[in-house]
Design goal:
homodimer, alpha+beta, Aminopeptidase, Alpha-Beta Plaits, 2 domains, nine-stranded mixed sheet, four-stranded antiparallel sheet, 36% helix, hydrolase (chains A, B), Peptidase_M20_dimer (chains A, B), Cyt/Met_Dipeptidase (chains A, B), M20/M25/M40 family metallo-hydrolase (chains A, B)
Chain lengths: 467, 467
């Protein structure tokens, strides 16, 4: 293995150049004008996998919009390994990225990757998708390349699945997994889309939050109205939207939907203590982004609020006049993009219905509502007894020189739940991003350390899983 | 006078053509790129007034932004009339217009006036500013033209003041009136910027609501955040903005700011009965715009809610991701344009301070706010004993063949209050717009009837005020 690690060290610059090529493709999955770019990114990955001895191809998906292709690859030694009873891993990542707005806040162009030193002095790669998730995807592919280059084969059987809709609902993933069960089933899934709790502590994320994402649009008058002529008497959708949104949390930050907390467990004291050690105060999580106080449910620390408590957020809101100056108008419409983050135990469909019922029940005369779903997925928790968990923790600890920990993650990675549901196997989430990587924000970045030690980590994990 | 009325009837087409010329100038006062258009509109009016024997010129204003010129004109017989003790009127209108968004809802171009038949079969002129206020301004100028053409002089001394910032704060008007007191003082102001209660009942508006218009912007994190990584723990300015806005009205629609209703009087039973006759139910006001229920303060009819009760409205709100699809982001900022409509007796500056104190007092940790004022003006009520009120009511009744009534108006026309304050005289608000003229909205229109009988009404009013 040390030869493989040495090869990784030698090849750092070339690996980074390959990542830059992928980052240059603006594969924004939620924007229709980038449809072809998503296909280009998928095709680029297929070519890359083929160069390192994978049988790889794109698969069209047709169950839902937007329908960006899946990339699937299998190492050519898989068949032989299957006969030998060797461990088989399925790696998952995604090649699509978030939109780039607000564009004026980027210091460099989002799809022209460049190298900078960040505020903390570490060297980083700056580009949309650097950290979420193209950089992380390439840590695994580069680890495979190194094994292949040095030994001509991987230590375990490896299949790779790369999705193009993780940032836009991902509704095709589950039906795709179900339709390709035989092709994709392995012993364990390895998902690389998470962050480390700090610069030096490697982690396996053992719980994730799911999401219910809803867009609502309220409509009242048949046109925008003069707020003098009609103000008070005419229903104002922008005001009513604020009222509905406001009512979703109480004074203590708890979400008010009936049954919302059904099935939600409070973490055990040992876990809370471990997390309190990693994040001694709220600022330890929030200071990076200029905040210092946990804003959510009272009685829980900032890290608990994001790792193990469900949340409600306004992701976007708009209505009426938003340009320069002032316009005394009552808008005819107002809309909002809202999301709930769910922890294991909560039922996403039940919560979506409770939300819609709440809105309908509180809608006054003259006002109508439309709902658009932008996805619903359950929270996820890894089997603590998984035979692959200990091996992976050990490999990570050796690479980083510090004991690896298990953590939660506030984000949604529906694939973890869906892999379990469709393929009947567990998933280990191992990622090397940092909290200050600005993911989903301007100036997204991925550290040289993350990328390089990420590759080395996978080299070790693949070896550990073979034992 | 009948010769003058006959002249107006003969000259209808030419009068409309002149109005079209004015409507073609996109004098949007709140948008910087239309600064020169505002100046062009002012200059067009100066030329027009000169052709009918007025000494007219533009006056630069410099006290506040945006600084669009005032147009002032005096009929050349004014000096002689002053010596003879003849009545002197000051006419007020405004040549600036609202922005045109949302542009896609216009059926014709906002600044290419055209003639259409509206849903109710009446012929209308369609253009931004047709009704608010260029069409109304031209009713008066055309009445003056007719008197001059037929008799070579007006029946009373006439001065004209046309503002270019009525739709954008109008902060220069009061200092301008104060600085030009000697030039502008008259016996009575005539303001043409209001609507008739229905197609056939002429009205003098005797009360107006003032406005406090505020823009607030809340800022939390130093950048947009991933709502998975930070959702719950990070302060969400879009949610907090909703919460602040929601809290400004209680369950009964009353505004919650301390002292907000200080000085607010309930109208007498006779006035309420007169209004109930004009508007027998809420739909009589609201049906035109597709609504049917009074949405504001319980215990008041729709017309009372707009004519004599103060209100709070969200005129615009924005924050986070508003484009296609979904972005799981916690916005770093969210902002809203908010306004209070005030009735006579309320103190706008006190209410602005109460609003700002409410926001500051309810702002959680980590969140900062900025306030931008977009104007503050008091409500207004006409002296019921004004010697000019009866004469004007009588002239209107004669023109329209139906008794003229006194009404309220929910809009703000700060000039009425400011004329009283700066020039020490009362103001009569006479207008010919209709509730369904779509002012401040797409497809703004002004009826042929409004324009033609508006001109004829002023012909009669000028005569009546001379007696």
């Amino acid at each position: 293995m040390s030869d493989v690690l040495h090869y990784v060290d030698e090849q750092q610059d070339a690996a980074r150049e390959r990542l830059f090529d992928l980052l240059r493709i603006p594969s924004i999955s939620t924007q229709k004008e980038h449809r072809e770019d998503c296909r280009r990114a998928a095709q680029w990955l297929v070519e890359e996998l083929r160069t390192i001895g994978f049988a790889a191809e794109t698969h069209d998906v047709k169950w839902a919009e937007p329908g960006h292709p899946m990339v699937v690859g299998h190492a050519d030694e898989n068949d032989a390994y299957a006969k030998a009873g060797q461990t088989h891993v399925l790696f998952y990542g995604h090649y699509d990225v978030q939109p780039t707005d607000p564009d004026h806040l980027w210091h460099s162009k989002p799809f022209e990757p460049c190298i900078k030193e960040d505020e903390t002095g570490r060297k980083v790669i700056v580009a949309r998708g650097a950290s979420d998730d193209k950089g992380q995807v390439m840590t695994f592919i580069e680890a495979c390349r190194a094994w292949k280059a040095v030994h001509g084969r991987l230590p375990v059987a490896v299949s790779i699945l790369l999705e193009g809709e993780e940032e836009s609902g991902g509704e095709n993933l589950l039906p795709f997994l179900k339709a390709h069960q035989a092709d994709l089933r392995a012993d364990i899934a390895l998902i690389c889309d998470t962050a480390m709790p700090n610069r030096h502590t490697p982690a396996i994320t053992t719980s994730l939050r799911g999401t219910v994402a809803e867009e609502i649009c309220l409509t009242a008058a048949k046109q925008d109205l003069h707020s003098g002529m009609y103000g008070n008497a005419a229903a104002n959708p922008a005001y009513l939207l604020c009222r509905l949104i406001s009512g979703l949390r109480d004074e203590t930050g708890r979400i008010t939907l009936p049954g919302f907390y059904d099935g939600v467990a409070v973490p055990d004291e040992q876990t809370r203590a471990q997390w309190a050690h990693l994040y001694p105060d709220d600022a330890a999580l929030l200071g990076e982004v200029g905040l210092s106080h946990a804003a959510g449910e009272q009685g829980f620390s900032a890290i608990e609020q994001t790792w193990c408590r469900p949340s409600f957020e306004v992701n976007g809101i708009g209505g009426g006049y938003q340009d320069d100056g002032f316009k005394t108008v009552i808008p005819a419409q107002a809309s909002a993009k809202l999301s709930f983050r769910l922890v294991p135990g909560q039922d996403p469909l039940k919560i979506r219905e409770a939300f819609r019922a709440y809105v309908r029940d509180n809608l006054p005369e003259d006002v109508t509502v439309t709902f658009t779903s932008h996805g619903a997925s359950a929270g996820f928790a890894v089997e603590k007894e998984s035979p692959y968990l200990a091996a992976t923790l050990k490999a990570l600890s050796e690479e980083w020189g510090e004991p690896a920990v298990t953590t939660g993650c506030g984000g949604s990675i529906p694939v973890a739940e869906e892999v379990r549901h469709a393929l009947g196997m567990d998933a280990l989430m191992v990622g090397f991003a940092q909290a200050d990587d600005h993911i989903h924000s301007p100036n997204e970045q991925y550290g040289f350390e993350s990328f390089h030690h990420g590759i080395r980590s996978w080299v070790r994990i693949l070896a550990a899983l073979a034992e």
